[in-house]
Design goal:
Elements: H1 2-22, H2 30-36, H3 41-52, H4 56-74, H5 79-85, H6 91-102, H7 106-114, E1 155-160, E2 163-171, H8 178-188, E3 200-205, E4 218-224, E5 236-240, E6 243-251, H9 257-272, E7 276-285, E8 298-305
Antiparallel strand pairs: 1-6, 2-4, 2-5, 3-4, 3-7, 6-8, 7-8
Helix pairs in contact: 1-4, 1-9, 2-3, 3-9, 4-5, 4-7
Length: 306
C-alpha cells in the first residue's frame, strides 16, 4: 500500500513536471496541474514543494531562466527577444532577474560564455536545485527524487470528532491573519468564549498563494468551541468534519510553517500509505506570540487522510 501511494504521488508530480517543461512558453496553469493530481491547489502546492524543494511556479521560472542562459550562450537572438521568451515584459526586469540568479547581466553572461582565452571558465547555465531538474536535461529526467529530511517527522493519526468553530473571515495575505485573530479576540472575549472548556485557536487556509492574488486569499481565524456555546452574531460558525487526521507538531516561528507543511505533505504523506482525505487541513495554535518567543511557538498541523 505504501509503495502504491508513493508511486501515485510521484506519478502526479512527474506529470506536472512534464507539463511545465513542455510549456515554458506558456503561462502556467497551476489549477490545472492540481486537478491532474486529484488534489486541491493548496495541497498540491505543498506536495510538489515538499517533493522537489520548489513550487511549480518557482520551477517554471527557474527553467525559463536556465533556458535564457542557454540561449545567450548558444544563439545570437537579441537579449530583448530572449527576455520575452522567458516571460519578462521588459529588458530591465529580465536583467534584474537574470543578474540576481547568475550574478551577471545577460550581456556579461553571453560575453563570458563565448570567451575562450584559456583563463576564464564559461559560467554555468544552471541554478541550484535540490531536485536536480534542469533545462539542459529535461528530455532525460530520472524518477522524481523522494527527499527525506535530516530528521523523520513525528506524525500521529487520530480519529477526530466534528469540531465547531467560531470564526472571523480574513481576505488578504496569509501573514496578515493576525488582524483577524485580533478581531476574533475582541468579540470572543466579552462574549465569554475564551473561558469555555477546551477552547483552542485554529486557522483554516483555503487557497494556494501561487494561484490566487494576495488580496483574494481566503482564510479563517477561529476558536474551537463547545456545541452548546452561544455564538455572537459577529462571528461565523464553521464545522471541521470528523474523520481520520494525521497530526504533526511544528515548534518554531510561524514563518517556517510553510516549510513544515511541505515536509508533511511532500515527504511524510507519499511514504505513509495514505492519501488526502475530504476533511481538508487546519492549524491549531497551542500558544501565542504574546506568551512565547518565536522559537517557542507550538503549532499542530492537521491533515485529513483517506
Amino acid at each position: 500500500m505504501k509503495d502504491e501511494t508513493r508511486a501515485f504521488y510521484e506519478r502526479a508530480v512527474r506529470a506536472a513536471v512534464a507539463t511545465i517543461a513542455a510549456g515554458l512558453d506558456d503561462a502556467l496553469e497551476l489549477a490545472a496541474l492540481a486537478r491532474g493530481a486529484a488534489l486541491s491547489p493548496l495541497h498540491f502546492h505543498h506536495v510538489f514543494r515538499g517533493m522537489l524543494g520548489e513550487t511549480p511556479l518557482e520551477l517554471h521560472r527557474r527553467l525559463r531562466l536556465e533556458r535564457a542562459a542557454w540561449q545567450l550562450a548558444n544563439r545570437d537572438d537579441a537579449v530583448t527577444r530572449i527576455a520575452f521568451d522567458a516571460g519578462y515584459e521588459t529588458h530591465e526586469s529580465f536583467t534584474r532577474a537574470f543578474r540576481g540568479a547568475f550574478a551577471a547581466s545577460p550581456s556579461e553572461f553571453r560575453d563570458r560564455a563565448r570567451r575562450d582565452d584559456g583563463c576564464t571558465r564559461p559560467p554555468d547555465g544552471v541554478l541550484a536545485a535540490r531536485s536536480g531538474l534542469h533545462f539542459t536535461d529535461l528530455d532525460r529526467v530520472a524518477p522524481i527524487p523522494m527527499f527525506i529530511g535530516e530528521h523523520a517527522m513525528n506524525v500521529e493519526v487520530h480519529t477526530m470528532p466534528e469540531l465547531r468553530v467560531a470564526a472571523v473571515r480574513h481576505a488578504g495575505p496569509y501573514n496578515e491573519i493576525a488582524e483577524a485573530f485580533a478581531r476574533l479576540g475582541a468579540i470572543a472575549g466579552p462574549a465569554g468564549l475564551l473561558r469555555q472548556p477546551g477552547v483552542t485557536m485554529v486557522a483554516i487556509y483555503h487557497d494556494d498563494p501561487e494561484t490566487t492574488a494576495a488580496a483574494e486569499l481566503r482564510s479563517d481565524a477561529g476558536l474551537v468551541i463547545p456545541p452548546d456555546a452561544a455564538l455572537p452574531r459577529e462571528l461565523v460558525e464553521l464545522h471541521l468534519p470528523p474523520g481520520s487526521y494525521a497530526r504533526t507538531t511544528h515548534r518554531g516561528p510561524y514563518t517556517r510553517l510553510g516549510d513544515a507543511w511541505a515536509r508533511f505533505m511532500g515527504e511524510w504523506l507519499p511514504a505513509s500509505g495514505h492519501r488526502v482525505g475530504p476533511g481538508g487541513s487546519y492549524e491549531v495554535y497551542r500558544n501565542t506570540p504574546e506568551t512565547a518567543s518565536p522559537d517557542e511557538l507550538v503549532t499542530d498541523l492537521y491533515l485529513s487522510i483517506a
